[in-house]
Design brief:
There is one protein chain. The chain has one domain: Beta-galactosidase, Chain A, domain 5 (Distorted Sandwich). With about 325 residues, it is an all-beta fold. The chain contains 1 helix and 25 strands. The strands form 7 sheets. Strands 9-10-11-12-25-21-20-15-18 form a 9-stranded antiparallel β-sheet, with no helix packed on it. Strands 17-16-19-22-23 form a 5-stranded antiparallel β-sheet, with no helix packed on it.
Amino acid sequence: MEVCVISLGGIIQKLTAPCRNGSYEDVVLGFDAPDRYAEGHPYFGALIGRYGNRIRSGRFLLDEAEYVLATNDGENHLHGGLHGFDKVEWDVEHLAGEPDAALRLSCVSADGEEGYPGRLNVTVTYSLTSRDELRIDYRATTDKPTPVNLTSHVYFNLAGQGRGTVIDHEVEIFASHFTPVREGLIPTGSIQSVDGTPMDFRTRTAIGERIDDTDEQLLLAGGYDHNWVLDKEPGNLEIAARVLEPSSGRQLEVYTTEPGLQFYTGNSLDGSICGKQDKSYVSRSGFCLETQHYPDSPNQPAFPPTILMPGEVYETKTVYRFTAT
C-alpha cells in the first residue's frame, strides 16, 4: 500500500489498496495537485478539529461562561470553524526507525482561535503497517478546559476514486443505536434504537438499498449523515464498521477507541468538483467513516463528555484495515 499526505490540512491525498486480483488502486477522493486543496473543497482527506462535526448555534457553556464560535454551516459551527485544522499548515516529521512507515504531524491552536478557550497542542501520527493498515493516533494537551473531538474526513470509493458512486458498496456498522437529528443536522439529544429504521446496518446492506427512503432522518440529511453509537467499550480499540465493494473485492474495516462513528455518503457532492484524473465527483461518489465523540456534545449533557482539562492527555486511535475477498 501507499499513502501520500500533504502538510496543508494533514490531508490524505492518496491511498492505494489491493483488490482480489492483487492490483492496487487509489481509493480516496481528492486532487492530483497539492495546491488545488488551498482553493477550497469539502474536507477531502483532511484532519478535523478542534471539534469534528457540529456544535449548535456555535455556542456552548463551560464553567458558567458562554463561548461563541465561528459559524460556517448556517447558524451552526462545523468541523472547527472557518479556519479549522483542515486549513492549518502542519509541521511534519518522518519517524525514522519505526517498524512501520510513519509521519508525525503537529500544530498549536492558540487560545481563542475560532472562539475556543485554551492553547491546544496537537500531534497526529499516520502509520502505514505491513498488514495493509493505515493507523491514525491523535494526541492533544491544553492549558485551559476546552472541547476536543478530532477526526479524519477521508472520502472512500473502494472501486477506485472517480469510478462512479458508492451505492453498491455493502456496509456493516457495529451499532444498535444512533443519535437522531433535527433540522441543521443537530442531534435532538436522544439515543434511538436502529430497529426498524434505515439506520440498521447490523447486517451487511448496500448503501443504495434504503438511502432514498422517505424516512425523516434520511430526508433531513439527503441521505446518510448521522452518528452511530457503537456497541463497544469506549477507549478499547474495537471494530466499528466493515465495507465491501463487490466488484473489486476490496474490503475496509474500521477499528477505533472512540464511542461514535459518523457515516456520510457524500450527499452534497453535485458534480461541480473535478477531482483526480479529471473525474467529476457526483452525489454519493464517496463515503466517509469519521470516528468521533457525538456531535454537539458540549450542549448535550447526556452524551459522553468531550472537555479536555489541563494536565490531561487526549488520546484516541483509529485503524483503517484493507483486505480483499
